[in-house]
Amino acid sequence: MTDTELPYNIHDANSVVEYAFELIGKTLREAANVDEIADPKRRKGSLGNAIEYYYFHMDPNSRSAPDFEEVGIELKVTPRKLTKKGERVAKERLVISMINYMDVVNEEFETSSLMHKADDMLLIFYLYDKDKDPLDYDIEIVARWGIPDEDLPIIKKDWETVVNKVRAGLAHELSGSDTLYLEACTKSSNSSVRREQPFSDIPAKPRAWAFKASYMTNVAAGLDEGMQSIERKQGEEEASLFDLVRERFAPYFGQTEQELAETFGYAREGKRPPKNLCALITKKILGVTEDAKIAEFEKAGIQTKTLRLQKNGRPKEAVSFPYFDYCELVETPFEESDLHEQLSTRFMFVLFRESEEEPGVYRLADIAFWQMPDADLEEAQACYEEMQRRVRDGHAEDSVKSSENRCCHVRPHGRNAQDTNMTPYGVPVIKKCFWLNQAYLKDEIEKITQNRS
DNA sequence: GCATGATCATGC
DNA sequence: GCATGATCATGC
């Protein structure tokens, strides 16, 4: 199968991840329409190899790391099992890569070969069941994962403990019990194999970097927890996410912000409703508790934004994104930029419309799912690259105006005028971000709502 | 009424 | 204390 025939775009990380998400809640038999794992060689490593071959259509003969080389993502398929108490735990450690004793002593943790791999992984957890054919294992979690910041100090320490032992000529004395999360686990086809080490003549067992099973148990629990799915009632099993969400919202169409605040218990004596009202009621309406994330939105990478449409259909405000770093902007091509990533994901707009009779009063009117068309992504790219030029030329203060680009513009986005960021030419300039133009949003919203019956 | 600079409010 | 979604303020 050539690149263009693949059911996902191998050059687009979002596409790879979105395609992978479709595995959640399924078995490989269901997801890839496979009857049996034909090649007995592929039975070993069972599900992981089969997913690569039958679902991602990777050629097992031309395997090179990382698995999704084009986007730098490493695929890891790993089992959980049920304990006697019925709790899910990692069945085994997650092996990342072999340790080369001769090279590792010259590495730094931050730029190590381990970090290169463990930095950006596509983790797939399935539920192991000794009585099942691997094709029928339940695939429970799919997540793009990197070592979380809060775990980095311990993992770095673990890495250094191992590497320092090799530097001391003690590779033959390495043990999994030396470390907490990350370990150097033995890995070889038979127990007599030995490798050379740089600072001792004693041959050492081959070992690989691996996250311990206990650590993986917690990683999986963390990915599971804090996520709630939208409950589907009878007859809704097959509904699209959009239909499901709109169905839930529909009873509240027509309510003002104040009324919604009261309906959901967010009204505050003598004060405006909270600014994050939209986020709060979205969760309430979809039946997800306040502290949880909406699983479907997280998995599909949907960003929720409020749009207050004035009587003329124009949003009262433009839509902002996080501020950008001037130095990063200059160095990063559009395809690899945060802006590209943000504009490549789907949005759910919660639409409020200004009441005809009561100026300034906005009522919940509709929801709309939107993704920027490719042609407009090119327009956004022009905005991005023009801003890059200006910063390179020493004019970061000179924003790309909304009059200069059909889709996007640049504007300040700090806490105040003193909230600045360093430019490549050494002068601090107020923090700025990219915004979606109001006129552009008006057109896009009209396209969506007019296409509806 | 719009463009753009500036700031608020909340959550982590 | 900062990042971020949301909103305000000013001038043309």
Please characterize this protein's 3D structure.
The chain has helices at 13-21, 28-32, 46-55, 101-104, 113-118, 152-167, 213-224, 241-249, 257-263, 277-285, 295-300, 326-331, 338-344, 374-392, 438-450; strands at residues 74-82, 88-90, 94-98, 121-127, 138-145, 182-186, 195-197, 200-204, 207-211, 227-228, 293-294, 303-309, 319-320, 347-354, 362-370, 408-412, 420-422, 428-430, 432-436. By secondary structure, the protein is α+β, with helices and mostly antiparallel strands. It folds into two domains: 3-220, DNA mismatch repair MutH/Restriction endonuclease, type II (ECO RV Endonuclease, Chain A); 237-452, DNA mismatch repair MutH/Restriction endonuclease, type II (ECO RV Endonuclease, Chain A, 3-Layer(aba) Sandwich). The strands form seven sheets. A four-stranded mixed β-sheet has the order 2-1-4-5, with helices on both faces. Strands 3-9-6 form a three-stranded antiparallel β-sheet. A three-stranded mixed β-sheet has the order 12-14-15. The structure holds a DNA duplex (12 and 12 nucleotides).
Physical arrangement of strands within the biggest beta sheet:
2-1-4-5
Unreliable runs: none
- Number of E-state strands: 19
Task: Give the mean pLDDT.
Answer: 88
Q: Sheet with the most strands? A: 4 strands, mixed
Kindly report the name of the CATH homologous superfamily of the largest domain. DNA mismatch repair MutH/Restriction endonuclease, type II
Structural class: alpha+beta
Strand content: 15-25%
CATH topology of the largest domain: ECO RV Endonuclease, Chain A
